[in-house]
Amino acid sequence: VHALTALELAVVDSRGYNYAEVTAGGVALDEIDPATMESRKVRNLFLVGEMLDVDGRLGGFNFQWAWASGKTAARGVTRLR
Predict the structure, then answer these.
(1) pLDDT per position in the chain (81 positions), as tens?
(2) Can you list the positions of beta strands (E) in the chain?
(3) What are φ and ψ of residue 27, in 5° steps?
C-alpha cells in the first residue's frame, strides 16, 4: 500500500471538463466480496467506486456505483465490530 500512496505523478495537462470521463481499470471484481466490498486478498481492506474495474455509461451511473459500493463497504466495516 505504501508503494502506491507514496508514488507521485505530476499532472501536466488535461483536455478540460467537457472531455472528462471516468477512468477504466481497477481491481477486478472477483477479488472482492460483493456483500461487503472487502478484498479477498487483503483482510480488512475495503474497495469502492473507481478503485474497482467497473465502468458505467455517462450520466450519473458512476456516481451511483460509488455511492452504492460505499454504502455496502460501510456496512461491511461495521460487521468487524
Answers:
(1) 788 788 888 889 888 877 777 667 899 999 999 999 999 999 999 999 989 998 877 778 888 999 999 999 999 999 876
(2) 32-33, 38-39
(3) -70, 135
Give Cβ neighbours of residue 23 (< 8 Å, ≥ 6 apart).
50
The C-alpha atoms of residue 32 and residue 40 are separated, in whole angstroms, by 5
Cα–Cα distance measured from residue 29 to residue 54, given in angstroms and rounded to the nearest whole number: 8
Distance CA 4, CA 47 (A): 14
pTM above 0.90, yes or no: no
